[in-house]
Amino acid sequence: MSRSLCVTALLAVSATTASAADYAQAAPPVAQLTFNWTGCYIGAHLGGAASDDRTINNAGGTHDFGAGGFIGGGQAGCDHQFASNLVVGAEGRAAWSSLSSHHAGNVVFPGGLVAPSQFDLKNDFLASITGRFGYAYGAGWLFYARGGVAWTHEKIDDAYVSPASGLAVDPSASVMRTGWTLGTGVEWAFASSWSANVEYAYHDFGTKSPIQLISPLERVTVAHLRDAIHAATIGVNYHY
Does residue 140 lie within any of the structural domains? Predict the structure, then answer.
């Protein structure tokens, strides 16, 4: 009797094990979750920037100069992902900048008088509106390029001691410049509604001429001022 019970128990265990194995084989594999880039987002970015500037004064003197600084601001945009994994969208950015560059120069007056000067250029604002074109790869990666219109706000001054009055003067100007920008980056969706990105962008504001710097006592003309900015940033976006 006991031998029959043992045989029955062994058969039952074998059947249960076989059923479990069959179920495990029949269970479908868990699908890898993918991130869809269609939708809108808002976020923030920070990083470093470097300016590439040139001045030409009214006597033909040329100075190439530049500086490094920090930028930080926000962005917002919308994307659409197609079935081919192509992603097309638009983005607006605005950032504060600490860029401040300068060089030693000369102010030339009628009659040949020359006064040594200190020329300063500050870029305290950087913004852009761009189209964004990318390719979605894997579970949550986006490789993209963007390009469009850019703006920067310049504060310009040229300090010197006037040969005519012997007084220190500092004529200045505040200028909003419009140019173009091109950039490239990679974005990683690390959560269902969050992504992080690394990006490089070049901003070119061309050459503006002439620029009048004004003080209560005197005026100075900058014949040509070229301004370009390189920026590398990291950012985070919330998608909704």
Answer: yes
What is the full DSSP assignment across 201-222? EEEEEEEE--EEEE-SS-EEEE
Domains held by the chain: number: 1
CA distance 214 to 211: 10
Question: Could you report the per-residue pLDDT of 93-102, keeping only the tens digit for each?
Answer: 999 999 999 9
DSSP-derived secondary structure letter, 163: T
Whether 120 is in a domain gets the answer yes
Q: Please state, rounded to an integer, the average pLDDT across all residues of the chain.
A: 88
Res. 9: pLDDT tops 60: no
Assign residue 138 the CATH number of its domain: 2.40.160.20
The number of beta carbons lying within 10 Å of the beta carbon of residue 172 is 14
Percent of the chain that is helix, strand, coil (3-state, to 5): 10, 70, 20
Tell whether 71 is covered by a domain. Answer: yes
Residue owning tokens 């930080």? 72
